[in-house]
Each structure stands twice: as structure tokens, then as C-alpha cells.
Amino acid sequence: MKKLISMLLCALFFVMPAAGLALGEVPVELSHEWASFDMGDLHSAAIQPEHLGYAWGYNYDGPIGNGVLASSNTTVPYNWGEHIVAVSANNKTTAYVNEAGELYLVGRIWWGTGGQTDMPTPYVYPAGYLLDTNVRQVSMGMNHLVYVKNDNTMWVYGENDHGQLGSGNSNNLYTPTQRLTGVAYAAAGDNLTVCVKTDGSVWACGFNSYGQVGNNSTTDQKTLVQVLTGVYTVSVFGDHVMAIKNDRTLWAWGRNDYGQLGNGNTTNQKKAVQVMTDVAQVSAGMYHTGVIKTDGTLWFAGNNWRGCFGNGSTSGYSAANSTFTQTPGTFVAVNCGSNSTAVCAPTGQLYVAGYNSYGQLGNGSTAGSVPTLEAIDVWIFRNGEEPDILLGDVNCDGHVDFSDVSALYAFLMNVADLSDQGKLNGDMDASGTLTMEDVSLLCAMILGN
Question: Where residue 16 sits, what CATH number does that domain have?
């Protein structure tokens, strides 16, 4: 009966547009590449094959994890950990989650000026400080962090001077505190917290002078407020926010003095505005934004100071940069930091560009500017190894919806072909052979069954 239902559903999907439904209960399904490298403020981190954690760049207070606390630069990636599944780097801290779900902080674990009764002592941990357990995702802001546990609860920690912890006040928290339930993904910016709930709604709180909360105001918001719906992922680093909806449209709000929203002007946006279509992945940097479209092309908007667009120019800001411009090449992921950028090629190797005075590009030097994308010896995966599988992503566009059902059905009917990766992703029952049973299972997964 399942096979008959699947065939009837597929016949319907071929005459209807893809619904863009989320995967199961959680609308956010980050690929391994998206979650495995992070360009911070002045240092960077990545997870290489075999779940090895690496970091490089500015190392005051020890965020590189090499035991050095004094001011120093590590220009070559340093292996600081094993069994790592998620990582986030910012300010003087590297946060990571291991396979056991343990959340550790390396480097500085508080950022205030003192006076808090629950302030950790000592405040620097070059070998890692265990903060919490049962964690699956973490995001470091400039002075606070947010993370999501396996039960979809969101927790907060750190400074709160603009209400970024969502507690309704400005009191710092140096004990992890639960703030929200039903959260799929959370992101921390500059005194700003943004999260996507499992129903696709976006909630935000914190610093709001540029409208970055997205609630049509410029007053700091000290409790979480809903600002958008139909979203499956968000990105924030500084004072602007980028969100991809389930229909692959890109939306933006917040600070825009360098055109980093990509909407063709330099006016701050107090609520979300659509800026692009056919978007697979997005990363908001401090003053620029990087996008991977569904065809693998790479696009940037904002300030190209120090060459962070990787297009050979160090033009800084120009009016042309307030709309997205393409940088040549095909890539699977992008991550933007503070005037620096890393992209992951289809081979799995990282390429970097932009500001590098502290070695944060990991290319073995502290050259001030690297305006053209340059390969470094960091691999998120390697061709020839067993590839990562995003179950159900038959057309390999980074997320799962009914267009994947159509692609799988067309392959089984001998009217279209699939890539090798698409065949692996479509093997829902892990039988090694694609059949109509896989179509049935894929439909059930998309429908949340």
C-alpha cells in the first residue's frame, strides 16, 4: 500500500511546485560543511575529517587551545581536540560540542569587568571548560553565547547589557540558563540573539540601535519577540541578520551602512526585506554577507575591505557592493567573519580571503590582506573518503523537500539521472539499492511521519 501511495503522491508532485516543507519536526538541517568551520573576530576554527578540532589566529587568553595564554598568533591550524561535532569561534573564545554532547569553552569564559557573584574563577581555560551536557548546537557572540540542547531547549550564558539573553533585564548570567523551548537553531551576534523555532518562526532580542532585532523598532529588546515566519535557518555575526525561508528566498534586516544587506541601498532596515532567491546557504559577517546559491555560485554584498569578497579587489565599500556581486567559482559553503571569509570547495578544502594581520586565515602568514581566495591545508571532508550523507537530499541542494521526491521518482522511472551523492542520500532504508520503498520513506519523513 505504501508503494501505491508514494506513486500517487509523486504524480501529484510533478504537476505542483515544490512545497519547501521542513525536514521532520526541525526545519533546520545544517549540512556537515555548514557547521564545521567558523571565522570569528580574529581567530578561526574548523572540524577536519575524523572529528578533529583545529583553530588558528589571534590567541590572547588561549582560544586556540595550545596552552598559550599570552598574546600570540598561530598562523598554522593547531589540532586542539578530538571527537568534535560542532564548533563556534568569536572574540577570545572557542566553543565546541563533542560526540557525547558535552559543551566546552576554550579560552576566556566570561567577558565582563567583574563584580558578578557567580563569575567563574579562573576565567581563562586553555584546555577547555565544561559548561553543559546534552548539547547539539552552539553559537558564540561577541560577549555571550547561546546553544540548543537535544530536547530543543535554548540556553544562554554571558553578558546581558542590551538584553541579549532575553531575561527581561540587563543582568549578566554566568550560570547557563534555559530561555526557550521548541528551538531548532540559535545564533549569537554582537549583543544580539536570534533563533529559529521548530515551527519556522524567528525570535530575537538584544541590541537594536540599527533595527537588528527586526521588530520595526530601534529600542533594545530585552525579551524574545517573534519577527518572521516560514524560515529554516538564520545567520548573524555583528549587527545584521540574514534568514533563508523554506522557499529559498533570502531576507535581511538590521545594520546596512556598507550595503551588507544586499538590497541596493545603505539604509538600516528595522524589519525583514527580501533580497535574493534560490539561496542554499548564507553567512553574515561583521560588515559583509556571503551567499551560496542553489547552483553553487558564490555572492557577496557589503564592505570588501581587505579583500574579503575574494575577487582580487580591496575596494572597501562602493555603491555597487550594496547589491550582491558574484565571485568566480563553485562552492558548497561559506562563512564570513570580521572582514574575513572562508569557503568550502566541492573537494572539501577551505579557501580563505580578507583580513589576516593575526593569522586568522590560517595560510601560514600575517599578511594584512589576502584579496583572492587562497587554499589552506584545512579539509572539511576529502574526496575519496566516505562522503557525508544528508538523508533525503536527492538533488543535493542542501535541504529536503518534495523536489527530492520528484528527483528520486524520475530516476526510478528512468527519465532522469542522479549524482553518486544523490543516490547515497536517497537510499532511505540503507539497502544499497534505490527502490519505490525509498520514495515512500522519503515522503513519510518530509510529512513528519
Answer: 1.10.1330.10
